[in-house]
Write a structure and sequence with these properties.
By secondary structure, this protein is an alpha/beta fold. A seven-stranded mixed β-sheet has the order 3-2-1-4-5-9-6. Strands 7-8 form a two-stranded antiparallel ribbon.
């Protein structure tokens, strides 16, 4: 098995990827009355509900070591889940499907072991409108972006019943790629850069060049002239979607 991506980039991940409360509530609603939940690509377990029976599946030992919620976790991959058919009421997959080596197989496994599937994915065409892409255009050709599964693709493998927008609040606590849309200075922080895969997987010189350009635009007022209108908004949509499937 190839080295899991987050064994390379996941160090210190838990400190910057704090669950966003509004997303926690949205995911909880999507889980409905499920009592048993499998979290696939579980990472540090950020969005695992605290009032249900949860088991995590995660390939990276680095991420497993950062888990603090006490839920059991199995080291494994989405494409080969070690559970019986229908074992769980629901399965979670939070911003993980784009990392899977065989997405069709992984989604089939989710459907096999659970009655409901709740996934956080993103619409690349919407996320590509984010101003950060101007400074790091290389993300547009990165494998994670060019192969990212949209809700429509998810729907070719699961029986989708709803797709919801996951609005990003201005003070979003989860350091996803677009979390700091109204706090541009944050993207100059190396810890922030390392906590989001789209930047963490870029070459160091590419990240340094993009950060330098952003720092210059912040200093001379260019960023505020182009994007200052965002400072008047309390939330934004940069493509994050909650896909809910059943059956």
């Amino acid at each position: 098995m190839a080295e899991p991506t987050y064994d390379r980039i996941g160090v210190g991940y838990a400190t910057k990827r704090v669950p966003e409360p509004r997303w926690v509530a949205q995911i909880a609603r999507a889980l409905g009355d499920a009592r048993t939940v499998l979290n696939v690509g579980a990472g540090s377990g950020n969005y695992e509900p605290v009032d249900r029976q949860v088991v995590g599946v995660e390939p990276s030992s680095t991420m497993i070591a950062q888990r603090r919620n006490g839920n059991p976790v199995v080291q494994g991959v989405a494409e080969d889940l070690p559970f019986a058919d229908g074992r769980f009421d629901a399965a979670l997959a939070i911003l993980t499907v784009h990392h899977w080596t065989d997405r069709a197989a992984g989604l089939a496994e989710l459907r096999r072991v659970s009655g409901r599937q709740v996934l956080v994915v993103y619409e690349p065409l919407v996320s590509h409108s984010f101003w950060l892409v101007d400074y790091f255009p290389e993300v547009l050709t990165a494998d994670l972006e060019t192969g990212a599964p949209t809700p429509d693709e998810i729907g070719r493998h699961l029986r989708l019943v709803d797709v919801e927008t996951m609005w990003i609040p201005a003070d979003c606590s989860d350091g996803v790629a677009a979390a700091y849309w109204r706090r541009p200075e944050a993207y100059l922080d190396p810890d922030v850069q390392r906590s989001m895969s789209i930047l963490a997987l870029l070459p160091d010189d590419v990240v340094a060049r993009g950060a330098a350009a952003l720092a210059k635009d912040l200093e001379d007022g260019t960023w505020h002239r182009r994007h200052g209108h965002l400072l008047e908004r309390s939330e934004a949509d940069y493509g994050y979607r909650l896909a809910i499937a059943e059956g």
